[in-house]
Amino acid sequence: MDQTVSASVFENLDPARGYRGLRAALATPVAALCKAEKGHARRTAAVDLFRSVLAEGRARARARLEARGSGLECARRLSELQDELIGAIYDYVVTYVYPADNPTFAERLTIVAVGGYGRGMLAPGSDIDLLFLLPYKQTPWGESVVEAILYVLWDLRQKVGHATRSVAECMRQSRADMTIRTTLLESRFILGSAELFTALQDAFDKEVARSDAREFVAAKLAERDTRVRRAGASRYLVEPNVKEGKGGLRDLNTLFWISKYVYRVRDPQELVAAGVFTSAELSLFERCEEFLWRVRCHLHFATGRAEERLSFDIQPAMAKRLGYQDRGGLSRVERFMKHYFLVAKDVGDLTAIVCAALEEKQAKPPAIFERFMQPFRRRRNKAPKGDFIIDHDRISVADDDVFHRDPVNIIRLFWMADHHGLPLHPDALRAVTLSLREIDAELRADKEANRLFLEILLSRNMTEIILRRMNETGVLGRFIPDFGRIVAMMQFNMYHHYTVDEHLLRAVGCLSDLEAGRMPEHQQLVSEILPTIVNRKVLYLGLFLHDIAKGRKEDHSIAGMDVARALCPRLGFTPGETETVAWLVEHHLTMSSYAQSRDLSDRVTIESFAAIAQTMERLKMLFVLTVCDINAVGPGVLDAWKSQLLRVLYWETEVVLGGGHSSVDRKSRVAVARTELREALADWSDEKFDAYEKRHYPAYWLKVDVARKVRHAHMLENLTGAVTPLATAVELDRARGAVELTVIAPDHRRLLSIIAGGCAASGANIVDAHIFTTQDGLALDTIFISRAFDFDEDELRRARRIAEFIAKALRGEVIVSDAVKARARQNQAPTAFTVAPEVVVDNSLSNVYTVIEVSGLDREGLLFDLTNAISKLNLNIASAHITTFGERAVDAFYVTDLTGTKIVSPQRQSAIKRQLLEVFAPAGEKRPKAVGTGVQSVAAT
Q: Distance of alpha carbon 230 from its chain centroid, rounded?
């Protein structure tokens, strides 16, 4: 179909009326083609015309949106376009395909938009939900018309959800099915018999909507909870779902569904008259709706599909499309996402407001809030008096003037909720949000207010929940302005799962749970250390502030020290306590870095870290802070291996700080580890076990857990007497969501490179590596790779294939480098992230080895390329420490030259750096520039 025809149709429309009139405008070109063509050719021509009109209409809506247009306007225009197109298709079918000159009463047909389409708003990739409404049962003519309309829509590649029912059938099914009831709640007339549609609405109001509203409200809120759990329980996940996620469009839809059902309103503006919203809250609802629709429409157009998730790879493009710019230390993508999370928070506030109004109307059971508090219940104190009351078993305000009369009451409200073990009434939270102006410099300086806040932070009851309520109402950001700067701030990386403020609250919650014994999976890690910390308020505040300076131009650890030094005196901390909090903020990443990227069996590593820790009290606090920090990054990030590394670093440093004495010294721990393995290998003779234990160095005994030691023992036993010992084994590591691949082979300098190459050639992503050598010259290497399949059987088959490929490579049956190159040619996936590569060559970190630390953008096959380059440089890798922080890889290699000595020549160090930087250069491009000098020729002591 000539594109000029579809374009001319739109040119004749009144711009002020959007796409209204398109149906009538199409009558002439449809009549012309039907006159010119017959049979199948006529249908093809009609579909081509409708397709070109649909494409032109969508293109015009997209152009208006991308010219800084409104998201709601775009959604409404697309809905209008769909209405008019369906009308034109209907006219074509009943006029030229199945004409009915004198339709009977039973052949009346009404087309109704339902569900999301029924709201009169349609996203570019959304489904079209239609109800073909009949007066009685289906007739042959009506069935043919409906089928013809659907076939045209399907030929246009539209996703159509449809049903054909009579009014009576609609009533019967909506009474039994809450989903159908919801779709009918938003039904909208498109064309056909208006009387039939009115009959549907009247019947719905009389027979369904007047039934107990509590049932509908409870069902919709339960449905919301299920949906939120499926999409991610937090509204602060860094890759949110715009439609289904917490704080997304579906939450606004749910609020309006409930309001329509309970208050019988048909427009959000009527909620003001109904007393649900104030005018300001209605404006907030409209702003949230506009923003989320604008994001959703842009997202669908940008991806070319019904994509609802703001994934990392699309966030930069979305930020650009929406006009954000770099500013104030934040990139435009971080500014865009911060705006998104602030809107999600506002949606949460609106949800609480509607729920409070429903309770007043007795349309919703108040117990809906109780589920948040059950794990934290304790014996309640006496009921609050004076400015506060208990309403439906929740803390509320006695009158509207409570916070103006005494602004300290804002902080006291949250303190009382925690102190009495009671949830906060939505009315009280609403009153807080309307009184935020009362939180000024005078209140921030008030001793009582600061005392109450510190008690909340140090509470052993509901710390995380209360702090989150303070944050969601805006109190936390006003009372501590530096916290306000990081509210809803995301970090554009794959490592952190949550926004910065949510991460801090989860970290504090983790510490509170550890103290209360509510985290059995990590309890043993800190059980002996946490109770011995003398000053817990220093630890809590250090944890609360450790990331508070994120998003600034300077290093957040350094800038955070200034924040700590300013805030601590306000909270009544002594100068000594203030400096310790500042020290914790400065070094909150240090212990994790040492544990994961340094050789903990090297004495220089331990002495260097001990010099930073300085005292046992600081070591204890930093250890617990690190555990909580890593755990709060995201589910499963604090795995068994990281926990063991932190534990070993703590033990080793404890010995140094204790002057060589420790509650559990190194020799004792090695002895305990040997005893544990001896007990696990009870069927071995003493002679056999004694010979076996001599094969391992102390580092092995300290770093490997008992289950793995048992597996290794059996593997090594099976190799006894082998001329060329080689063995592989695979295990599922469910705690880490990874696959464990163990290789035992004669040690040589290219071994790790071959293993890494085998993984790369097989498409396996390496997330960690444990490298050990036995005293009789065997390498015992364990590689951890990401899972690729949901089912264990599939994953184990894949892992065994990878292990077999590595075995073939070690036997010389395949050439690893060729297989890796072939894989790379097939899989050059783009990434949304850029990480400047850096190489540091350091001789001060070990008495025996040169440490090469390499960081840069992680990718498939990176470890192979790095280890291959190191082997080509004639360096021997004694140990490797593989770490990934989302998209950033940080790998440390302890190396010597082939004579077993350090690399001291500046020229040789520069060559190493140059070769490793070239690993990060895309094929055919020059090597990337390094960050800083990257080479440290520090003599070993």
A: 12
Give the per-residue pLDDT at 261: 80
Q: What is the CATH number of domain 214-364?
A: 1.20.120.330
Q: Encode pLDDT of 173-195 as tens digits.
A: 988 888 888 888 889 999 998 99
Cβ-based neighbours of 12, under 8 Å, separated by 6 or more:
25
Q: Are 900 and 862 in contact (CB under 8 A)?
A: no
The structure tokens listed for 351 are: 């949800």
Report d(CA 570, CA 362) in Å as an integer.
Answer: 44
CB contact set of 762 (below 8 Å; sequence gap of 6+): 798, 801, 802, 805, 823
Pairing relationship of beta strands 128-134 and 388-391 according to DSSP bridges: unpaired
Burial class for 848, CB neighbours closer than 10 Å (0-12, 13-18, 19+): middle
526 pLDDT more than 70: yes
CA-based angle 209:214:215, to the nearest 5?
A: 75
User: How far apart (Å, rounded) are the C-alpha atoms in residues 129 and 115?
Assistant: 6
Q: CB neighbours (10 Å) of residue 876?
A: 19
User: Could you tell me which residues come within 8 angstroms of residue 378 by beta carbon, excluding any fewer than 6 positions away?
Assistant: 421, 461
Q: 399-443, pLDDT tens digit by residue?
A: 889 999 999 999 999 999 999 888 888 888 889 988 999 999 999
Structure tokens, 345: 């928070």
Give the bridge partners for 766, in sequence order: 785
Is 70 exceeded by the pLDDT of residue 902?
yes
Q: Which two tokens stand for residue 622?
A: 């930093």
Q: Rounded to an integer, what distance in angstroms lies between the CA atom of residue 748 and that of residue 520? A: 42
Burial of 135 (0-12, 13-18, 19+ CB in 10 A): buried
Amino acid at 138: Q
Provide, rounded to the nearest whole percent, the portion of the chain with pLDDT above 90: 48
Angle in degrees, 0-180, between the axes of helices 666-680 and 640-657, rounded to the nearest 10: 140
Q: Where are the domains of the chain?
A: 214-364, 715-936
For residue 447, CA distances in Å to 213, 499, 569 come to 48, 30, 11
* Confidence class for position 255, pLDDT limits 50, 70, 90: confident
**Mean pLDDT, rounded, of the chain:** 86
Instruction: Count how many Cα atoms sit within 13 Å of the Cα of residue 446 in the half-sphere of its side chain.
Output: 19
Q: What local confidence, expressed as pLDDT, does residue 378 receive?
A: 40
536-545 vs 447-458: helix crossing angle, rounded to 10:
90
CA 63 to CA 15: how far, in whole Å?
Answer: 14
Nearest Cα residue to 200 out of 233, 234, 173, 230? 173
> Is 375:498 a contact under the CB 8 Å cutoff?
no
Q: Which two tokens stand for residue 343?
A: 């809107």
